Amino acid sequence: MRDSRPAPGATDARDPATADTGWWREAVVYQVYVRSFADSDGDGLGDVGGLRARLPHLVDLGVDALWINPWYPSPMADGGYDVADYRDVEPAFGTLADAEELLAEAHAAGLRVLLDVVPNHSSDAHPWFREALAGSAAARARFVFRPGRGPAGAEPPNDWESAFGGPAWTRTHAADGTPGDWYLHLFAPGQPDFDWTNPEVREDFVRTLRFWFDRGVDGFRIDVAHGLVKTEGLPDADLPPGADRSHPHPAWDQDGVHEIYREWRRIADSYDPPRVFVAEAWVRSSERLADYLRPDELHTAFQFDFLRAPWRADLLRSVAEEALAAAARVGAPSTWVLSNHDVPRHVTRYARPQPEAVLDLDAYREHSSGQVPDLATGLRRARAAALLMLALPGTAYVYQGEELGLEEVEDLPDALRQDPVWVQSGFTDPGRDGCRVPLPWTGEGPSLGFSPSGAGRPWLPQPPHWAGLAVDVQRDDPASVLSLYRDALRLRREHLLGRDDVAFPPAAPGVLVLRRGDVEVTVNTTAEPVALPAGRLLLASTPLGDGGLLPADAAAWTTRG
Ligand code: GLC
Question: CA-CA 20 to 30 A from 211: which of 273, 395, 412, 535?
């Protein structure tokens, strides 16, 4: 069970009500994709009851907080990122009362809780959008409706594309079938974008933040935080062929968005203890990302370049150094993440030949399926990458199942795929279901303990070999991935926290060395063993070889202290 460690930067971080507000600067946050975490009622879908029952796993692992993906009422056109009511809980997941119980239980266990707020768009089942389609002018003004271009307005209002593929506009039709205006959806057609120039939208999100803050929620992850404000007039993007996400676009990362977060920060700061934010913002540089982290804006933002970095020492190092420098400029911590519910799991990413530059993740999913992954190598590298991530200064996010070493499930039957990416890409991109497969809790049973015995099948099938990766199989095995994460989190607390100093001393090609205080982290991405610095070994991702050498695709923490 959890030891009585002092929490990061906090005088009494085991009691969230009184703790120092800086806890988020060095926290490790566990991401719960609730549909796939644990099912308590046997319908094959994870739920709040399942999460409550499995909180001891998170306590045992030693994380500081959890982030829960959207659990609001939703038609699930995009796994809950299509929200029909921001201030309630999806009935398939439980009730508001269950959510309040969960908050109380998590806090009692010393875990803080972050929710996921989705401000760029709602669901087409949101009452406002229904009113808009029914013709209410006030409701239409909360979304982005525009006449089409071309003869009879049959062409979309501009050339923007949905992030999931296809046009970012859908045409509306009157009850008698007459075509009308178009509405904007940067994601699925079931996710109409809000118009953030409308004060009613701003006010409603303030209500939502307060609603959950008043119930004790410790903060929010902000979904597509870089999308809310669009360039006035909605001009064409005119992207050059082959432009990737780093190309400037009138729908993304507009300067006007920062004003919204200044208001949100004032609200978060008005609570005791202050509430916190982490932004999901896919922007073109660490510099642009740091703008979201200015002292009167958001607290943290995911550093996705780290996640996109291939298993190459030079790139891992340059991405980390650049991110640390950009965040330091605004006094913010960096936020490291290797996997989440949107990207192929890193065991699998590292199991294929590594590119020369940071990955384009959409292209990866579309084009990698022909190459058989070497999962044993991927897992070795994933274990090593965890030791790198957890040693870097700042906060780190652990996506459910990465602590078990789960890989991307790439062979799901097409008929079971639920991610809208699959359909919207014209069936060329398999989408994100492969990283959302329900967790294995026990080595036996039809759903590997995901659902209670006698229940229906999990909403996505688990690979049979995950029986060997189940929580109860790994828990007492000192060589397991789970034990590695648990050990790393404990040693991080004992040796690494509270130290801002970080240096990257020169190292041999293919080797990354990171120094923090007395601890040296050596990451060997080469195919040959390398020597470790003198000192005591704290932890290694794999047993050391002859003469105490660090084997290929491995990492170790040593200390001179
Ligand atoms: C974010 C979420 C992703 C979702 C999208 C639209 O990128 O992480 O899962 O599909 O926003 O809400």
Answer: 395
CA distance 460 to 447: 10
Q: 343 alpha carbon to ligand 1 midpoint, in Å?
A: 11
Q: Tell me: domain 16-122+199-488, CATH 3.20.20.80, correct?
A: yes
Ligand 1 centre and the CA of 243: distance in Å?
Answer: 20
Q: Are 72 and 53 in contact (CB under 8 A)?
A: no
Closest-CA residue, ligand 1 atom 9, reads: 342
Residues touching ligand 1 (Cβ under 6 Å) are 78, 81, 118, 187, 223-224, 280, 341-342
CB-CB contact of 73 with 84 (8 Å): yes
Q: pLDDT digits over 356-366, tens only? A: 999 988 888 88
Q: Which atom of ligand 1 is nearest to the CA of 120?
A: 12
- What number of residues does the chain have? 561
Instruction: Name the class of domain 502-559.
Output: mainly beta
Close Cβ partners of 137 (under 8 Å, ≥ 6 residues apart):
none
Residue whose tokens read 């601890």: 519
Topology annotation, domain 127-184: Oligo-1,6-glucosidase; domain 2 (3.90.400)
How far away, in angstroms, is 152 Cα from ligand 1 center? 33
pLDDT at 369: 72
Distance CA 281, CA 279 (A): 6
Domain extents in the chain: 16-122+199-488, 127-184, 502-559
Tell me the pLDDT tens digit for each residue of 217-263.
999 999 999 999 999 999 999 999 888 777 899 999 999 999 999 99
User: Which atom of ligand 1 approaches the CA of 118 most closely?
Assistant: 12
- pLDDT band of 375, cuts 50, 70, 90: very high
Nearest CA to ligand 1 atom 3: 342
